[in-house]
Amino acid sequence: MNGVCSPRRQRGAVAIEFAAVFVLFFAVLYGLLGYCVPLLMLQAFNDAAASGARVAVSVNPTSGNYTAALNNAVNAAVNDRLSWMPAAWRVGCYNGQFMDAPVSETVNNRTYTRVRVCVNYPYAASPIVPLLTLPVIGTVPRLPAVLSGQASVLL
């Protein structure tokens, strides 16, 4: 019986099939992790920045040191929203602070105070999920150098 499907000729076929399927499943799993974790961080940064901007509205502008009270309230709100992630993953955009200095702005002949809140993480310098460089595809995951979430409010 010299058939094409003899057990002797099939030796090693399972290992080759497993290797092909494993590479495919590993690529899908790594793609999910490689993109989902940074996108989760980005959404969390946007939510925290928006929360800091919302809290800025509640600070009394007639208080003794308005800028310090505003900064403390924004920092507390951002840190509260991002308390689930390590502190090293959240960095303020403005010299380490989450809030930029309030700026006066005139809109329709009225003067407002603009407060900008920003949270970022330098992903290219220290990626959470290691980057892979594939021959034809390039770097996976392909993400911006800095993940950043921003919000601003006129007071």
Polypeptide structure, described:
The chain has two helices and six strands; from the N terminus they run ααββββββ. The chain has helices at residues 13-57, 66-81; strands spanning 91-92, 103-107, 110-121, 132-134, 138-140, 147-154. The strands form two sheets. Strands 1, 2, 3 and 6 form a four-stranded antiparallel beta sheet that branches. Strands 4-5 form a two-stranded antiparallel sheet. The mean pLDDT is 88.
Determine the strand fraction and express it as a percent band. Answer: 15-25%
Average residue pLDDT: 88
- With helices defined by DSSP (H or I, 4 residues minimum), what is the helix count? 2
Order of helices and strands: HHEEEEEE
User: How many strands appear in the DSSP assignment?
Assistant: 6
Overall structural class, as computed from helix and strand content, comes to: alpha+beta
If you compute it from the alpha carbons, what radius of gyration comes out, rounded to the nearest whole angstrom?
25 Å
Helix content: 25-40%
Overall geometry: rod-shaped
Q: Termini separation (Å)?
A: 88 Å
Spans of at least 5 consecutive residues whose pLDDT stays below 50 are none
Instruction: Please describe the biggest sheet, giving its number of strands, its sense, and whether it closes into a barrel.
Output: 4 strands, antiparallel
